[in-house]
Amino acid sequence: MTPRATYRLQMHADFTFADATAIVPYLADLGISHAYLSPITVATKGSTHGYDVVDPTRINPELGGEDGFRALVAALREHGMGTIIDIVPNHMGVAGGENAWWNDVLARGEGSEFAGVFDIDFSTPIVLPVLGDPLPKALADGAIAIEGDEVVAYGEHRFPLRPEDRGTGAVEGDALAELLDRQHYRLAWWRTADDELNWRRFFTVNELAGVRVGQEPVFERTHALFFRLWEEGLIDGVRIDHVDGLTDPATYCRRLRERFAAMPRADGVPAIIWVEKILGAGEPLADDWGIDGTSGYDFMEEVAALLHDPAGEAPLAEAWAALSGRSADFATEELQARQDVLAWQFEGQLKACVRSFVALAESDPANVLTPEMLRRNIERLLWVFPVYRTYGTGDAAPAADAAIRAKARERVAPLIPPGEDFVVDAVLAWLAGEGPGDATLAAEAVRRFQQLSAPVAAKGVEDTAFYRYGRLLSRNDVGFDAERFAGTIEEFHAAMMARAGEWPRALLATATHDHKRGEDVRARLAVLSEVPEAWSRYVERWTGMEADALEGVDPADAYMLYQTLYAAWPEELETTDAAGLRDFAARVNAWQEKALREGKLRSSWEAPQEEYEAHAKALVERLLDPAHSSGFLDDLAQLRRELAVPARANVLAQTALRLTVPGVPDTYQGTELADLSLVDPDNRRPVDYDARRAALAARRDPKLALIAELLALRRDRPALFADGAYVPATVTGERAGHVLAFTREADGERLFVAVALRMAGSGGPGWWGDTAVSVGSERMSAGELFRERTVAVRLV
Question: How many helices (H) and strands (E) does the chain have?
C-alpha cells in the first residue's frame, strides 16, 4: 500500500496499541493513509520514546505485545490504511540490566556470542561510567557489593560476574577489588565517560551503545522481526533512525532494500524506506541507496525559511548582538560550540580517531606525520565540517563527497597551524580513499572520523549553539541552517521541482518528536522578521517595566524567554487566568531549564547552576503572574493581537504547502490543531483526541478544516499528488513577493495552489492592488483569491 498521508504516533505505556486502535476511525475520517509508529520493539521499562531498544527481536509488551500490534494493524486494514514503523539500527539501550545481549557481553567479554553486536574495543575492559565517585572511594564507602552472581553499585546498578567468579559468597576489601579487577568490565566514575569510554555510544548518552549493524550476522539478527512483519503484511515500510551513525549507511540501506524486495507483496508495492538524515546546506541526498527519501527535516527547513522576511535579518541580528554581547553571526557561535563539545564531551572518541589515523600513517614507510600533527588537524576539521559526515569506505568514496571535502578544506584553512596544510590534505585524501597505507587501517580510520563528525555536528549545532544564539528562535531547529535567515519564493519553487523529479515519495514534516519548537510556534516567530523595529520597542519597554524581576538573569536568556512567551502562548489562555498561567509557567520553566543546560554557558547537565536557574525560573513566574506583571501581560496580549493575522497566515501557508507539494505529508500527533509545543518532553504530551474528533466534525478550526479538505483531495486524486508535476505559477503586481503559487499536473488534471506570505501590515483585499496570478490563459486577482482566507486551493 503506497503511503498517501501519514500520522505519527508516539507509542509508550500510556499510549498503547489499544489506544492507537481506538483512534483509527478518527484518522480515517481525517484522511490519513498510514499510521507511522515510533519504535515498537522492547525498550527500557517505562521508556516514553522507544529508542532505547533492549530486545529488537520482540514487540514491546508494554505497548500490548504482538497481539496488540496485530489488532491495531487489523483495525487499520479494515479502514484501508497501512502501517510504517520506526526502527533503530544504530544503537541499543544498555542501562538497568534489561538488555540480555549486553549482559552476556559483560559476563563473557569477547567470548560472548553477542560480542560482535556492539561496537566495543575489547583491548581493555569495557568501561562502565556509573559510579558517583572514583572506584577507590566508592569501594571505601561501601557503595559496591556482591549479591548472588551480580555486582551491585549504590543499590541500583547491577552487573553480572564472570561465570568462573559466581557463587563466591560475601567478598569485601582487597578481595572485592581483586574480584572486580578480574571482570570483563571496569566500573568507573561517571565523569570519566567523555574521556575514557571504549565503546561507541549514541551522541553523549552513556545508556545507549552503538551496534555493528554493518556486519551481516548482526544485521540479520537485529532485523529478523521487521522482515517477518513485512512478509506477513503487517507493515508497509520503515523509517530508519539516525542513519548517519552507521559505519556504512549506503550499504546498509541497499541491503535493507534487497531483503524487502526478496519478499515481494502480491500487490507489487515496494516497501517504503525513509531515513532520518540531517542534510547540510546544499548537501544532496544520495540517490543510490535504495531509499524513498528523508523523514522530512529538510522540508521543514525549506518551508520555514520561506516564511521569514529577509529584511528582518540585519535589524534582528544587530539587536541580538547589542543585547547579548555575543556575535550577530551564527557561524561564530557554531564554531565555539563545536570546539566546546569536542573538547568536553568527545575526548575519548577523538583520541580513538587520532590513534587510528596514527596507525594508518605509520603503515606508510614514507610517513612524516606525527601524532600531534594529526590530532591538531583532525580536531580542526571536526570544528568546521560542513555536513554531518561523508561516506567513504577507506578505499573509495562517492563522487558527491568531493564537494564536501572541498568545502571542509575551504572552511578549515584559516584555522590550520602554520605550515601544516599538508596534514589536513593527507586526512582529506584518506577520506577520499586516496591516501597511502594499509587498506584495513584506512577503513578503520575513516570509519572513526565519520562516526565522530556526525555527533559533533549534532551536539555542537542543534544541542548547543541553537540554545546560545537567539537572533530569532524560529531559525534554530533540527535540520535548519541557522546561518540562512530567509528563503526566497524562487528557491522554494526550485526545491519543490527537484522533489517532484527526484524524491516524490519522501516524507514532508513540519513537526516531529524531536523539534525544538512546534510548527505554529515557529510560524508565529517568523512574523517578527517582518516587524523587527516594533518587536524591539516591545522588548525595550518590557526590559524597563520588569527591571526588578530581570535582576540576576542574563539579558540573552531574557530575550529568548520573551520570544518563547509570545510564540508558545496557548490560544485560549487569558491573562487573568491565574491557574492557566501557572500551568504555562511550568511548561516554560521546563523548556528554560533544558535550554540553559544544553547551552552550557550559565548552567549544564553535568553541573547545574541552581542559583542562576532559580533566578531564571523566578522571572518566568513573575512575568506570568497577573498580580505582579499585569502591565507586561497586557502588553504581550496587545502584541499577539497585532500579529494574529500574519501569524495565522503563516500557519495556514505552512499547512497547505505540506499537504500539496511533492512528497508524503506527515501529521505529527495532535498537530492538526494548534501546535504550540516546546522541546521534548513538552512536544510529547498526551493528545486530546475527543477534542479533535469534535473539531473535525464541526470544521470550525481553520487549520484542521484545511487539513481535512486537502487530505480528502489527496484521497480522491492520489495520482495527481503522487505523480503530478510541480509547475510554478506566474505572479505579477506590487505585492508579487507576498504570493507563492503553483500547480500540480498529471493526466490532464491540474490543481492550483496559492498561499499568502509575510502578511504583517496587510489591510484586506484592497491591499493587494494589481497583484495577480496567472495559470495558463487564466489571470486571477490576488485580492479575490485571498478575500476570505489566505490559502487558495482548487482544481482548474
Answer: 30, 25
Amino acid at 515: H
Burial of residue 568, with CB atoms counted within 10 A of its CB: 0-12 exposed, 13-18 middle, 19 or more buried: buried
Distance CA 590, CA 680 (A): 9
CA angle, 314 then 317 then 323, to 5° = 135
Q: To which residue does cell 513566574 refer?
A: 621
Q: By three-state DSSP, how is residue 356 classified?
A: helix
Decide if 487 contacts 302 (C-beta within 8 A): yes
E strands, 99-149, where? 126-131, 144-147
Cell readout for 219 is 544485521
Q: Which three cell numbers stand for residue 755?
A: 498561499
Is residue 478 a contact partner of residue 278, using CB atoms and an 8 Å limit? yes
| Cα dihedral 396/401/406/410 (nearest 10) | -120
Q: Decide: helix, strand or coil at residue 648.
A: helix
Quote the CA–CA distance of 612 and 22 in Å, as a whole number. 45
What integer pLDDT is reported at residue 1 of this predicted model? 81
Residue 446: what residue type? V
For 513-545, letters b (16+ CB in 10 Å) and e give bbbbbbbbbbbbbbbbbbbbeebbebbeebeee
Radius of gyration of the chain from its Cα atoms, rounded to whole angstroms? 27
> Residue 145 and residue 150: Cα distance in Å, rounded?
8
Centre a 10 Å sphere on the Cβ of residue 114 and count the other Cβ atoms it contains.
16
Give the Cα separation of 546 and 197 in Å (integer).
Answer: 47
- DSSP letter (8 states) at residue 717: -
Q: What is the rounded CA–CA span in Å between residue 296 and residue 663?
A: 9
Summarize pLDDT for 729-786 with one digit per residue, the tens. 999 999 999 999 999 999 999 999 999 999 998 987 789 999 999 998 999 999 999 9
- Whether the link from the prior residue into 646 is cis, omega within 30° of 0, is no
Beta-strand relationship, 126-131 and 185-189: parallel
Residues 243, 685, 467: CA angle, nearest 5 degrees: 60
Q: How far is 158 from 150, CA to CA, in rounded Å?
A: 6
For the stretch 337-352, pLDDT in tens is 999 999 999 999 999 9
Looking at this protein, which amino acid is placed at residue 743? T
